[in-house]
Design brief:
heterodimer, A: about 525 residues, alpha+beta, DNA primase, PRIM domain, 5-stranded antiparallel beta sheet, about 45% helix, about 10% strand, B: about 500 residues, mainly alpha, Transcription Elongation Factor S-II, Chain A, 3 domains, 4-stranded antiparallel beta sheet, 24 helices, 6 strands, about 55% helix, binds zinc ion, metal-binding (chain A), DNA_primase_S (chain A), DNA-directed RNA polymerase (chain A), DNA-directed RNA polymerase activity (chain A), EC 2.7.7.- (chain A)
Amino acid sequence: MPHSVDQKAEALPSAEVEMAEAATDESANQGAAEDVDMTDATETQTSEATKSEAKELGAFEKGQERNGMASDTGGIKVEDLFDMDSDDEEFPSSAMPVKKEASDSPDLLPSSPSDAGPVQHSGSDPELLRTFYQRLFPWRYFFQWLNHSPQPTLDFEHRELSFMLSNDAVMRYQSYRTADLLRKDVLRLMPTRIEIGPVYSTNPRERKLLQNAGSFRPVSKELCFDIDLTDYDDIRTCCDKANICIKCWQFMTMAIKVINAALRDDFGFKHIMWVYSGRRGIHAWISDKSARTLDDSKRKVIAGYLEVIVGGAQSGKRVNLRRPLHPHLTRSIDLLKSHFQDDVLEAQDPWRSPERADKLLQMLPDTELREALKRKWDASPERSSELKWKDIDAVAKTVTSKNFDPKALLDAKQDIVLEYTYPRLDINVSKKLNHLLKSPFVIHPGTGRVCVPVDLRTFEDFDPLSVPTIQQLIHEIDAWKEPEVKSEKGVHDWEKTSLKPYIEYFRTHVNALMRDEKDVKVKRERDGEDNGDLW
Amino acid sequence: MNRIDNKRRNVVDHRKKQYADPAYKETQYPHRLNFYATPPTADITLEQFEQWAIDRLRVLAEIEACSFRNKSPVEAAAHMRPLLEKYLPLDSNSSSSTQLSAQRQKDHYSHFILRLAFSSTKELRQRFARVETMLFRLRFNADDTRERQAFVESLNLDWEPVPDEEKRKFATELIATVISSYGKKAYQSIDEEQFYRVDWTRVPDLVEQRKVFLRAGKAYVPAKELQSLVVTEFTARLEKSLELTARALPRLDEDDRLTPILDHLSKNFVAPDAGYSGGNSAIDGAEITARNIDNLSQHFPMCMTVLHRTLRRDSKLKHFGRLQYTLFLKGIGLSLDESLTFWRQSFNKMTDDTFNKEYRYNFRHSYGDVGGDSNRRGGGYTPYSCQKILTEHAPGPGEAHGCPYRHMNMENLAVQLQASGVTDPAVLRGVGEDKEKQKFHLACNRVFEHLHAKELKQAKDERIMTASQLETIVHPNEYFKRSYLLKNMGKAQPGGGGDVKMEG
Ligand SMILES: [Zn+2]
């Protein structure tokens, strides 16, 4: 697991700040939130209600196990019900009911260089949010993306969506037949966050009507990956915690490159979409049918295949690989080499201080080499990481010991390159079919930025700090001027804004997915073996 | 066993009528190995039916014993070679044998006969599938490389052999996976390495450990891993077929010639390593008497210790407990007279009258002193083996028989072990892990080695006991004998009787 306990603890202060932020927003909007609660008391589940329901299902499951049925054939594990996306610890979730503390120290608020000012707080301003859902959110493509067809199917109707409301209440197991019904309900409830769960064997809303808990089980979901910059805190020097800049964003660029190559070339997946999580991480959604139908054990296999960095930040050398390297790792090093030079050695300069240089020494073999390097670096304390890296080979040539093993040094250097560049996955997000993950195109309440897809053709130029914020977008609609030559079709509001390229990219992605899905269906019908889907 | 007129012809496959096809020719056996996909159709004599089944059973029982004794694959193969030669030979196509067809027919038929005998309960099916898998693996490894490949190709498992051209194209990648997974020594040259292309989901373990090259959703599996692929497939198919056989069994009842044979076969299989001959003193010079049992109980395995403690505490034992314990005592050399004395004294809360009326007969019966001809001739029942204790008659509430390593929860087991002087936390933890993994023999032997550590070292150092005398214990009476001899080194010598031997 990339998260060590220590890291979690470290991340906490920022989480608190964010919560305080949410609380501030809320007090402004309390009226609206109460409204929702009153009018919809039956449907709205507070986190407490969700919890007791979880227990109920857990009890079902126990009974099932007693009957000798394997638990993976059905039933929901209690822990799974609480399994929320851990990407954004700053969000309170049903899993962790969090105390809301008012904060009066705005200077603690995380800020990024281009993003100062009051703008960033209003990610969940209800009026802005309403306008966003009403005029900008790409409902149709969102529906098609999850439905795999223009006509409503059970892929969408049985899909769990989960809403977090502005009062932090979480409504799980929401489901809709069409994009329009979903849109209407979102406008009514105004969730600050939408999460996507699996497609279930029956309609999630009807799960409680079932006699047999086993007949309500997750059957498919996109394969997902989650990478978060906080997992790089021990190797990035520019920022820490929830803060990011374009320098450390390069770690995400490397991650996309490496993981994408493995998913595409090794596993043969085609419909991969990367989504900026709105602040400091990215998610991958793989929509190929063969990926959606993987069971938990197969998801775990993929996660294991991709996982290279093991142990927490305090666990010493975290990369230990058999030699010769597996082709996936050889390819990864090829992809990462230049990034190591430019984005790590130069941009991060991770071993400049003597303490950090010690960390590098610990990862090298041979006592004589280590001692020689230490003497050299002690003599010039501010020597850059780039030079220190070069020193290793130069000093190695002077090592006289008969036991010195050049191959071991080469291997160690490769391991170091990987440790400082290879993607650090939160593999728990990938391992479970019924893990909830934040939807694309929602607004990150902390930054106000839209969780936009990252165009794979230009992902190396992606700058998270120039991703449009909700305020900016609404302003763009207002500022839009009708061109002199009117187009025959009307202009969508999103086309008037800087959201346009992202939605167009999403549309292209969804169309390719639907085309493939259709081909599969046609082929199956031709082969006369269309037994319907799982239902 | 009752012999049945062997002139009468017998049909092995009960489904033959359904599939009867005049064009059907006698089964051909192009390969030495067999996945046993099609049931035999030709007639064989009843004598063949019975003899072939017994021969295969001998082989399977011995293979199972190898696994209980934790023999390595190489040791097991060496141990099994002469037995296979004798009972179930299978020569390769390249050999000059003229018996190929006959050998393969016997192999084919005997497998299917035992399927019938061992499909009735889930436990038997699992055990049969397990030992048949072991046999298959043994033969698969011993097969000629080229013939093995031809066999695998004949299975149509949609594992595509990677063509040479593609192999050369990905030579770097393929070589890297082979060397990093199996070491430099295992690698010859890319031309000699054979790879199969399979859907990655078929080999999840190899993918997760990055032991195979992946491309476009296909895993390139080295032929070295083929064994595990083929064997996994063999087991999966056999388990499925056994389920089907179980459902078809009732129809077989109509053939009253087969039922007694099949019954007998399955009974034999229940205790393949049984046959601890009792009656005569197992160890010269040992005082095996009623009044010495308390003293001797320090040499008992836990299954008997628990019975002994329960008997002392409650002054009685329930039916299966009495049976398990009295046969064990018989096995260590307690005479019938002494046995009756022992039980009479132990059941000290009942009258002579009750004891004589309700119990005396049963104890005599187990010694072969009363009962039918066969019981008398056979000297009564044989002491139970671990296998029998582990698998038959799991104890219910208030019953103390069975194998404590299997049937007790860890808490109670620890109490019993501690009462026997096993207090080392590492040993207790080890027992717990064995138990978790269902390696009950290992747990028992672990305790034995712990309690006899000093003596075992001495016996090994001074070469008092041979390697075979120090093999894994798979019989409670062997536990006793070995413990007694070790603790009395130099005082007693092994007697003639009491050796564990196989019963066909
Ligand atoms: Zn930064």
